[in-house]
C-alpha cells in the first residue's frame, strides 16, 4: 500500500504544496499591495489553459506561460500613461474573456471548464502532485534565496539601491514566483480563487506576527489548516472542495479579526 | 583630502523632463555639504543619482573605490500589514550582531527600543532608526535626503546636532538635502544651491549673499526665519527673475 493511492491523501498533499508556496509569496503580495495584480495574473491564466488544451500541451505549461506574459506586461507597462489599476482591469478581464471564448471553440471541454475555474483537487493525480510540489519547492527556494533583498526592496526602492539591490530585479523575482504559483494552483483551487490562497492566510496571520518571517510561517500554518479543514468539510457537507478551502480560510480570518478587535478594545478599556 | 564622489556634467532625465542639467559636484572625506533649492529643483534627483537609483542621461559620476554610503531616505512608509521590529529592520539586508545594533542605536541617540515595532515609533525615533541603519556599515559618506521632514523644529535641530556629533565621532562625510536653511547653513562646510542646475555654491556665508541665492529665496533675507518662510511659498522655482548668466560658476 502506498499513501498516494488514496485520492484524499493526494488532495491533501496537493493543497499543502500550494500553501507552502502561496503563503510566503502571499505575504509579499499583501505587503506590496499587489492583491489585484495576483488576481489579474490568475484570471489571465485561463487563456493559457485554453491554449494548452487546443495545442494539446500541458495545462501547467500553458498557464505558466500566459501568467508570466501577463505579469511581465503589466510590470513593464505600468507607469506609462495608465495606472496599474486600470491596466490590470483591462488585461485581466480581457484575458479571462478571450480564454473563455477560446475554450468554447474546443469540443468536449465545455464540461471541464468548471474544473479550471474552481479547481478539482480530488482529481489530482501523481503527475499533478509532482508538478505542484516541484513548483512549490522552486518558489520557496526562489523567495527564500532573495528574502532579504525582497524585503529591502519592499520597504523602499531607494534604500534598496543604496544597498546595491536592484528593486526591478526583485520585482521580476516576485512576478516569476507568482506565475508559478498560479500555474500549480489551478488544479487545486481554480483560477478564480487562487488570489484567495495568496491573500487570506497572510491577512489572518498578521495580528500574530512581530517579524516578516513569523508572518510567513504563521500564514503557512493557517493555509495548511484551511486546506485540511476544507477537504474534510467538503467531504462531510458534500460541497465543492476548492471553494470550501477558501471558506475555511475566510472563517479563520474572521475569527482572528474579531479576536484581535476584542483584544484591542480590552486593552483600551483597561484604564491605561 | 580624499575625494569621495566626483560628478561632472551630470544630466538626469525624470520622465520627459531634464530634472538636472550639466551639474558638477564633488564631496571630500569629512565634509558636510548641504544642497538647498526650491521644490522640484532636482535635489532628490541628485541624491538618487548618487546612490545609483537613477541613471545619468549625460555626464559621469565617479565614486571612490570601496566607498561605503549610508543612506537616509526622504520618507519611508512601512505598510501596516508588514510587521517589522527595529532589530529586524536593522538586520536588512545584511545580518548584523546584537552589539553592532546596540552600538548603532546608541550613536543615533536611541535607547531601549530595539524590540519595538517600526510603525509604533514617533517621527523623531523613526528618523533616528533610519540614521542608525545608515551608520551600521560604518559609512564613508552619509546621505540624508530631507531627513527631518515631518519633525518639529526642536526635533530637527536635535537631529542635526546628532549628525554633527556623528561626523565628529566617525569622521564620515555628510551630504544632506534640506529645506531648513537656518539650521543647515550653520552646520555646513559648503552649500550648493540647486535649481535644475547649480545656481551657486561655496561657504554658507558666500551662498547666502549670492544674488542667485537671493533670487531663489528672496531678497529680504535678514533673519533666518525670513529664509525659512520664503522657502515654503516658493513653489514655482526661480527662472523669472533669475538669469542663467553664470555658466562657469558651476565648475570649481
From TrEMBL, chain A:
Signal peptide: none annotated. Pfam families: ABC-3. It is found in: Cell membrane. The chain crosses the membrane at residues 12-31, 43-70, 90-109, 130-153, 173-202, 214-237, 243-262. GO terms for cellular component: ATP-binding cassette (ABC) transporter complex. It is a multi-pass membrane protein. Keywords: Cell membrane, Ion transport, Membrane, Transmembrane, Transmembrane helix, Transport, Zinc, Zinc transport. This is High-affinity zinc uptake system membrane protein ZnuB.
From TrEMBL, chain B:
Residues 2-220 form the ABC transporter domain. The keyword DNA repair does not apply. One of its GO terms (biological process) is zinc ion transport. It holds the Pfam family ABC_tran. Coiled coil: none annotated. Keywords: ATP-binding, Cell membrane, Ion transport, Membrane, Nucleotide-binding, Translocase, Transport, Zinc, Zinc transport. SMART domains: AAA. SUPFAM superfamilies: P-loop containing nucleoside triphosphate hydrolases. GO terms for molecular function: ATP binding; ATP hydrolysis activity. InterPro entries: AAA+_ATPase, ABC_transporter-like_ATP-bd, ABC_transporter-like_CS, Metal_Ion_Import_ABC, P-loop_NTPase. PANTHER family: METAL TRANSPORT SYSTEM ATP-BINDING PROTEIN TM_0124-RELATED, ZINC IMPORT ATP-BINDING PROTEIN ZNUC. This is ATP-binding cassette domain-containing protein. It comes from Thalassovita mangrovi.
